[in-house]
TrEMBL record:
Keywords: Kinase, Phosphoprotein, Transferase
Keyword Transferase carried by entry: yes
Residue positions where 4-aspartylphosphate is found in the record: 307
EC number: 2.7.13.3
Domain Response regulatory: 258-375
Catalytic activity as recorded in UniProt: ATP + protein L-histidine = ADP + protein N-phospho-L-histidine
UniProt entry tagged with the keyword Transport: no
GO molecular function, one term: phosphorelay sensor kinase activity
EC class: transferase
Highest taxon of the lineage: Bacteria
Name under which the protein is recorded: histidine kinase
Residue ranges constituting the Histidine kinase domain according to the UniProt record: 27-239
Organism: Rhodobacter capsulatus (strain ATCC BAA-309 / NBRC 16581 / SB1003)
SUPFAM superfamilies with a match to the protein in the record: ATPase domain of HSP90 chaperone/DNA topoisomerase II/histidine kinase, CheY-like, Histidine-containing phosphotransfer domain, HPT domain
Amino acid sequence: MNEIGLPSDGARRDASDNKAQIARIMLLGHDLRAAVSDILGGLHLLADEDLSPGMRLQFERMRAAGEDMARLIEEGFEIVTDQAVGPLRQTVQLARLLYDLEMRWTGRAQEKGLGFHVAMAPDVPVLVRLDRIALERVLSNMLSNAVKYTDQGAVRLALTVEAETRLLFSVLDDGPGFDPDLRGRLFRQGARGEVPGKAGNGLGLFISRDMARRLEGRIEVSNRAEGGACVALSLPLAGLMPPEMAIDTPLPDLSRMRVLVAEDSALNQAVLGHMLSAMGAHCDSAADGVEALEMLDNGSYDLAVIDAEMPRLSGLDLIRTLRASGGRHSAIPVVVCTAYVLRANREAIVAAGADAIVSKPMTAIEPLAEAITQALERHDGEGHRPCPPIVDEAVFEALLGIAGAEAAQELLSRLISDLSRVERGLVAGLSAPNLAVVRSDSHVLLSVAGAVGAVRLQELAEELCAAARREDTVAMQLIGRAVLTQIDRLIAYAGRRQRQFEKVGA
């Protein structure tokens, strides 16, 4: 500073250099985010290929790790630039969090010949608001220690509610347990690395303790009576419930209905059971397609929620068998759950006889409620009935009339091409998430849907664009699924009209 209090030339140069450095860092951050977004989008699209179950698991493992990398990049640039690039407390979908952890750690456990199992109690809230990066660091360190120190058996992650006041993440393993002589030093750097034959720097529990404090929680360790260790992270539920928990639309009343859930994942069984119970349903669960078929043969059900991929008998084969049986459940309303959201998968599911589709992982109740409502509306007391039209027929026919018979096929081809391109963009954008891509593609969709009279799709595209503008990623996921379903229906409708023109031309 000089005599009149103005910055010196050196201070100005330093400030200018700092600004230039921050600008370069932020530009690097933009490029890194774009690269990670492309990787995640590509992985999501590759999952649509005809892959073996093992390869699908590896793709899901890479996707979950990529999303963690994206969040860590955000925190890294916040630290380096001393600027807040995102909210510290985020709305976390607990079922999605456990699904991602299951995908990441199943492969790691299998490499050691271990089992890895995830379970969530039915009374666990769907959404919480907390520091997700800190939570993932704690859980990853707890799981890393469990896998490292377990040579045979399994590692389990359980999420429960303790005394209705605390959220409890418990990692249980079949390892040797904690040495009583080391218990007092467990949370010091290097502690568990002192175990003979298990080299390491012992940072896991040391980091976990500090991250737990950042979450206003606590970590407790114990040895299990049946052998092995238990490390538990306990968080106070007070203050974790976000405003997104409020449900704006009424849920379907299933209070007099019995629902069969066919799902091989215990985690997804618990999530679906929790959501269906909230709608008033009584639920039974089957672990595979053969068991589900036996239960449908011997029981009485009003609705079936079926996973597309199951052992022994897949969900699609189960539906085909039901529809062809002519038995009492041949016309039962069926909702299919699938992790693969692109059109080719959905067309195969609909062709098998499903009434509605909902995407996995199940992270909120609204998409399931909407799918169930759609499935039930397609059935009256005497059986199947078609869904309401996807477009305003008068507007669509007027558009084809303006184009003329010769140009109508070209118009339909361009419509299908535009919708398919937007669909691919939205799948990648929602997966990352990439707000710019979602805004851009939903804006294009607004124009296309309006031109052909797809009123509901136009409304949803407008809602999705608004959610992306306000950076509401939770709303984006919920609305995005409905948008993708409507796009699929419009593509199928345009395809049918195209084939009609081809037959007339032939």
